[in-house]
Specification:
binds zinc ion; 10 helices; single chain; globular; mainly alpha; 2 domains
Length: about 230
């Protein structure tokens, strides 16, 4: 999460999950140094606000983006934020990560292509379906986003992309929604769920991102203009 980058640098254990930081129902942070600056404290409060209502479990989340009720949608966006946090920390249960934790799995090949090792970077950035969706998004937003192969590469480019805050925010939402969709799709295949079809992925990304940006009051375009030009 770009706006929480500062907190991430202050986190003493970059590998800690949010669940690790939740002790007996209370947030228990371990920062590298004390900070008294109000900007940083405000940032901590903002992040807690965003993530506090999420139940941290190991179970797989349900498909929720069909829901139109505001409350439910807010939960979806919170889930995406937590998902991104786990991407940053490389804490998602890819087959490579599971085998690195000595969890017995039969194969480490990618569930989508069976061609490469299923690492986080492969699934979200390089696997053929991810690659194709990134390409579609690039054309849709009409921005020369380079081909990136990791979150780090993406955020490095993004941090150096100097545009208005509104454009920045919108693209960040779109890319976060994209990555989340790819991950959900991979899980749907893995768990043999028919709940999500490949051919609606791009439409769903545009729809979820639209709701998300509108819910933050930062959108003054109609759905039709959003489809033509989101930024
Ligand atoms: Zn693959």
């Amino acid at each position: 999460m770009k706006r929480y980058n500062r907190l991430f640098h202050l986190e003493s254990n970059k590998e800690a999950t949010l669940a690790n930081r939740l002790v007996n129902g209370c947030w228990n942070w371990e920062w590298l140094r004390d900070f008294t600056g109000s900007r940083t404290s405000n940032l901590v409060n903002a992040m807690i606000n965003e993530i506090d209502h999420i139940q941290l479990t190991n179970s797989d989340d349900d498909w929720l983006w069909e829901a139109s009720i505001d409350g439910t949608f807010k939960m979806v966006t919170q889930k995406i934020n937590v998902f991104i946090w786990r991407v940053v920390l490389n804490r998602l249960p890819t087959r490579l990560n599971l085998s690195a934790r000595c969890i017995e799995i039969q194969r480490i090949g990618c569930v989508l292509c069976d061609w490469c090792v299923e690492s986080l970077n492969h699934v979200l950035f390089s696997c053929s379906m991810a690659f194709e969706l990134w390409r579609k998004i690039r054309v849709w937003v009409d921005v020369q986003i380079p081909v990136v192969s990791s979150w780090k590469e993406w955020i490095q480019w993004f941090d150096g992309w100097h545009v208005t805050a509104k454009k920045e925010d919108t693209l960040y939402v779109i890319i976060s929604t994209l990555l989340w969709h790819i991950w959900r799709y991979k899980n749907a295949i893995l768990f043999n769920s028919k709940s999500f079809k490949k051919n609606v992925m791009f439409d769903s990304i545009r729809s979820v991102a639209y709701k998300w940006v509108s819910s933050r009051g930062k959108l003054d375009t109609s759905w039709n203009s959003w489809l033509i030009s989101p930024l």
